[in-house]
Predict the 3D structure of the following.
Amino acid sequence: MKSLQTLYIIPFSEMTIDDVPKVGGKNASLGEMVRYLEPLGVNIPDGFATTSDAYRYFLKSNNLDERIEKILDEYNSNMIKLDEAGCSIRQLFQKSIFPIALAESIQQAYRELSLDFMPDLQDHHEFYNVDVAVRSSATAEDLPNASFAGQQETYLNIRGREALVTACKNCFASLFTNRAIAYREKMGFDHMSVALSVGIQKMVRANNSSSGVMFTVDTETGFPNALIINGSWGLGENVVKGTVNPDQFYVFKPTLDDHHKNPILERVLGSKEVKMIYASDEGGSTENIPTSISERQSFVLTNDEVLKLARWGVIIEKHYGRAMDIEWVKDDLTGDLYIVQARPETIHSMHSNGTFKNYSLKEKDPELILTGLSVGNTIVSGKVKIVHDTTDLSNIDSDTILVTEMTEPDWVPALRNAAGIVTDFGGRTCHAAIVSRELGIPAVVGTGKATRTLKEEEQITISSAEGDEGKIYKGLLQFSVEEIDLGILPDTKTSVMLNLATPESAFKWWKMPVKGVGLARMEFIISNHIRIHPMALVHPERIEDEDEIRKIRKLTAGYGDLKEYFIDRLASGISKIAASQHPHPVIVRTSDFKTNEYAGLIGGSYFEPHEENPMLGWRGASRYYSDNYREGFELECRALKKVREDIGLENLIVMIPFCRTLYEADQVLQVMADYGLKRGENGLQIFMMCEIPSNYILAEKFAKKFDGFSIGSNDLTQLVLGVDRDSGSMAHLFDENDPAMKTVIREVIERAHKGGIKVGFCGQAPSDDTEYAKFLVDCGIDSISVVPDSVVGVVQKIAEAEKQSEKLPLV
């Protein structure tokens, strides 16, 4: 646009973030990006904004100030309710006359913007009406401590001078939506001190492409190294409002600068039931239409597009010096990506890193009703209240779990009274998710069928504290809350690491004062996220059961090569765990199912023998070089290689379980090298689980073949004492504190150190008994891995033991 800056109009190119008092947070941010980030390659559609002076001129010309204040006084005196106050003020705007000078300024700027996109009309009388998005931008909006998300209105696909002026008037009126009034009251803003700017921005048409939202921080945990992108077909309002379950992409930020890497941690296909498109080429309206089967089964972005948006997100975050909430869109004519909004992320930026709350259910095996996406990292119980529209919003209190298809911005005053929120639709960046985080209310979104499954007044418990998957349980369950002050925990010489079972919860623990992950079990990812026996994906022709074939077909939909399904899903799960503690080491154990457990996977019965004692049978290292499983192990290796080399998480260490002999060690290491995982190459370290008496007896020889040991005390105790660890009748003899066990552990540590390698402990004992942690420190252990809930107690016990050992030499 040409420079048309006047008292009432400013082009985006003339604005910076310092102009918030003139054009509000949203528009000031657009101007800032146009000026400083477009030169860095970030695409932002051009446009202009009306100023706060224009808004005040509109008020003055129609004598609105005193009339608005009078209505607000009546509301504050409880003479009228919020609905009546908001409606009355908005009617004042609608009945007002748009000042001629202001209307002409807007229309002239619109003409200049239109000519930028159709320059051939410059010397003709025809007037080309470019389609624009008309967005409200309040002068107390998108601040670091107040997002005002969804408080004012946006109008899409506006075309024509008169339609534009009408949309501007509607934006002015939306400064007094019920939700905006209530939000300003809550945040302590004086209503009349806030002005409204209108941003008029060239629309990016996305009828046949996609759009969505990007956060430069994990929305649930505040984990700073992950960036999340949500997207759906059509215009982006459906993602923002939660009308659809969008596609979701997690990207690892630290390796984004390396263009040889593909740091996409996870891709989740959303159902994307509808898409918003232009209602007509004449402009002025939009409509939702059903998506095709092909659209529902396809991702809205390619990997390259995901990475391009992610790199833009990092550029924007770096420029503003804080986590950001960004809206993006892809043009369906050119295929170009654009950023159309960017505002500060307001939830995790306000939270102190010094404390950590951990919620956990007390009851075992509760009845699970539904699952969705978790929002909030908490647990609450209450009674179901089904809400279809505003008429259902009465009698909502702290015992109410609000259940709806999707929330609406106008519901915010009622939502803040609810105990929790459950929706049928929406992703982690939808309105319900954003509002619930800001209000501190847990939510489970995108369940698909909550309004049809849950009953009015039904007692339920919703948990968003168990990782990415939010869960809805039957009944009012008991739960505990532990608040941890991370600032008071002492430093220790002995490394404290985590034992993690599932990738869903990995980001939750990023604040914990640990030095990595000492044990991540691959079999949990396989059983929960893959569910299919790897050999069934290598040789599906051997599966004879039609039901098993249908399950495989359903789970692997979209994969031409079934093996890629296993590799992608396994790599995704491993990479989330590895990313959560980067750059600290993360030790992932290759699959350690027993044959009966492998047989329980889909298609597994066709590849597993029956064994009388699977605990001592075909497991661990013996499988990996066997002709009957070698092709399955290849898939594991390819997934590990993808995490380290493609995604760039070189902090990943591979650990081999149940390696019985030196011969087996050589065989496994050779097979791994054959599949691209050669010890020492690209810094790859390979550890061994020390859990068999032969590992203890030949510790110094095994130490020459591996880079480290991790003591697995469960199996080691079983085999040293000759006690079946799963036998209830023998439980009284299964004791990691037995003198024989303690002797083995002490000597293994000594022998490993003589062999020049480090040794850690990943068994359950220190998690259950902090005195056991003291014993390990006395033995000179290098690291101790515990479950997250035990970190605080173990750290304190280790610090005490280390302090004592400084005074008393080891005997």
